[in-house]
Amino acid sequence: THDTTMTSTQNETYSIVWFRNDLRIHDNEALIKAIEKNSGRIIPFYCFDERQFKGTYHFSFPKTGPHRSRFLIESLECLRKKLRELGSDLLIRTGKPEEEIVKIITSLSFPIDSVHAHLEIASEEKAVEENVKKNLDKMKIELKLYWGGSTLHHVDDLPFDIYGKTPLKLFTAFRQMMEQKNVNVREPCATPKDKLVSFGEMEGGCGQLPTVEDLMKIGNFDEWLKEFVDSDPNVKEDDQNEVKRLFVGGEEEGLKRLDYYLFQSKLASDYKTTRNGLLGGDYSTKFSAWLANGSLGVREIHRQLKQYEEKEGANDSTYWIVFELLWRDYFKWINLKHGDRIFKLYGIQEKKKGEEDKHAWKKDEKLFKLWAKGKNGYPFVDANMREINSTGFMSNRGRQNVASLLTKDLDIDWRMGAEYFESFLIDHDVCSNYGNWMYVAGVGNDPRQDRYFNVVKQGHMYDAKGEYVCYWLPQLSKLPDANMKHQPYLLSSEQQAKCKFSVEQDYCNPIAEVKFVPGGQSTKKKDFKIKKYSKAGGKSKVAKDGKSEK
């Protein structure tokens, strides 16, 4: 075929496009501006920042675990393919962006006049921007940063000052203001169609994509991963592969998922009624993984959703998709306003001098490991932890419950959970992850400090037949009804013998008592009886209303 790719002359100026969490060619302002500046003479560049593959800040878990690493590599494979179709390529490097950019510029035989990238919000990413800027300033090269399309609404279009007395104290106040003022969502940037100018041969080549194993070696996490990622022997590999097939990284797969969820299946019209599901690919949008690394633009989702509403009609469910995207924006504005406070023990609820601890947070490593490995003795929590460990994904309902057990029943420092999620989630987004953990832990914006999920009751409500817990804990399939599946620890030795099931050998006993909210309504159902373990290790009686008696 005739190749219409243009090639440059030696003295023509180029721009570098520094890709970060914007791994797409649609709705990419930095890419479009760089193309316009130098008539298609761009050098697309991505750096695997080695710091993102070392330990998390407080507890040294792998900052980017194997699930998200796989998804990231697939996303970059797709981006490289799209850029090659346009006659360019993607330079891949591993190291520190501020150093790798300098190495590239100094190795070139033609001048670079600017580097174009999207702004980030969280502190580590902002620090990298500062370092890049310092090095480029010395070379008299401009760093042009754009807000771009990481949020539904552009920061310049907000009807309030983020740093002033804003409606950010509560999500509801923020949402109502955005809706009442009918704040416009900007149209996505155009997708480049014209051929780009080839930048020719590079010193060191364009760079091969690393493997997941290569990335895990950066932080020497082999042993750690063996302990946590090795899946439960009861779970078949096919179960993990199903999620891997659903979450394939890259712009093409993200746009395919958007098209499937809207126009092919029309699932968007039922989202509000299905969103608390637990099994399969269709109960929720699943856009989050592609949104997190920018393979899918949030404004493109909004644009296509509006087209869908025109065709199929708007309803509560299509509204609820935008409602969830507003939550995502909200957590970004919270991070922008409060900065590093989202990583502090008391979050954005400041602890005053002399004030007693509102919560006796622990850093109990032994207890934490049982939670992380799905050995809590509560099947609904354990199934969810097995799912995240095996696949990198967990439903929203699951995330709230496992976080509540860790912070409210086990009294463990919420940041241990947040950093574990940071490591394992395929769709990890700093602002959403830490925002949601603060919310459940009672140190975020919600004034309800007693936000609490009774994980037994929630299991019965959202997995009424016990199908989800049996999927991830197949040994529970031996038990004949949902009550037993959700509370195997209540089985007598006779019942266990009859079912050929041993709580201690096939599963485990609860590691803590699930609390009932003080003053809250009792369920008055046998299903929700909780067995309490005394300090002496004996079992106490359980009252009929679900509260334990000595």
Tell me what you see in this structure.
The chain is of the alpha/beta class and about 550 residues long. Helix content is about 45%, strand content about 5%. The strands form 2 sheets. It has a 5-stranded parallel sheet, with helices on both faces. Strands 1-7 form a two-stranded parallel ribbon. Helix 3 runs parallel beside helix 4. The longest helix has 23 residues. The N terminus and C terminus are likely disordered.
List keywords for this structure.
550 residues; alpha/beta; five-stranded parallel sheet; two-stranded parallel ribbon; 23 helices; 7 strands; globular; disordered N terminus
Q: How would you characterize the largest beta sheet?
A: 5 strands, parallel
Task: Name the helicity range.
Answer: 40-55%
Note the total helix count: 23
In terms of DSSP E residues, the strand content is 5-15%
